[in-house]
Design a protein that fits this description.
This protein has about 230 residues and is of the alpha/beta class. The protein has one domain (about 5-220): 3-Layer(aba) Sandwich (Rossmann fold). It has helices spanning about 15-25, 45-55, 90, 105-120, 140-155, 155-160, 175-185, 210-220; strands at about 5-10, 30-35, 60-65, 120-125, 165. Strands 3-2-1-4-5 form a five-stranded parallel sheet, sandwiched between helices. Helix 1 crosses helix 7 and helix 7 (about 175-185) crosses helix 8 (about 210-220). The N and C termini lie far apart (about 40 Å). The model has no long low-confidence stretch (mean pLDDT about 90).
Length: about 230
């Protein structure tokens, strides 16, 4: 990796963010992995992020605590039930209760702050507009708007020292294409985590939207998911 091209890579520990980090590494960025511990019920993903960051040789892995449970409004940060066993036709339309208010805006703001501190012009995020489960902050127009805002919101941007670019290498890929890309890049997907509602033994449930999309992706990619599910 080139020490001259730094990138902040948002890393949740899931398939998408881990693959985005692998893409940044392939493209010769010196990768600074950033994980946000936001009080999510599936905090096991924070541990997965640490495994992925180490495996992919991140220059540093920073975990920032931003407790969004105080705000609530989501099944991932409150007491609402996580939807289970929904059909594919149900997952796509509408915004599900697993939407966390302004989550990607909070994440990207933290990434922007660290990028400015590092003197990095590049941020990677693993958002996806095809298998995105209705989340509004995964759309291309949202990313473009954030990029424009970054030019106005930072000292380095106003002074013309940094031109922040938000890279979304997976935004137009299906989950199957993402799984294939991860495989081609040599990413061990057994290190990643997707489940919103693990059991007490820390096994993925296999029934939440995230598990179903992951399993569908592996199935359509013709690859075996290395995770062992409850169902």
């Amino acid at each position: 990796m080139s020490a001259g091209r730094r990138a902040v890579c948002l890393l949740s520990g899931g398939v998408d963010s881990s693959t985005a980090l692998a893409v940044a590494r392939r493209d010769d960025f010196e990768c600074y992995a950033l994980t946000i511990d936001y009080g999510q019920r599936h905090r096991v993903e924070v541990e997965a992020a640490a495994r992925v960051a180490q495996a992919l040789g991140a220059a540093r892995h920073l975990v920032v605590r931003v407790d969004l449970r105080a705000i609530g409004g989501s099944a991932l940060t409150g007491e609402l039930a996580v939807p289970k066993s929904r059909a594919a036709a149900e997952i796509g339309p509408g915004i599900p209760v697993t939407y966390v208010p302004a989550r990607n805006t909070v994440f990207l703001a933290c990434a922007l702050a660290w990028a400015e501190t590092l003197g990095a012009e590049d941020i990677f995020i693993g958002v996806n507009a095809l298998d995105y489960s209705g989340y509004p902050d995964c759309r291309p127009e949202y990313i473009c708007a954030f990029e424009q805002m970054a030019k106005l919101a930072t000292k380095a941007g106003v002074e013309g020292r940094l031109e922040i670019r938000v890279h979304t290498p997976l935004i137009h890929l299906t989950k199957a294409e993402i799984v294939r890309l991860a495989h081609e890049l040599g990413l061990d997907l057994g290190l990643t985590w997707s489940c919103y509602d693990p059991d007490p033994a820390r096994r993925p449930c296999g029934e939440c939207d995230s598990c179903l999309l992951r399993k569908k992706g592996f199935r359509e990619a013709g690859l075996t998911d290395p995770l062992e599910y409850v169902t």
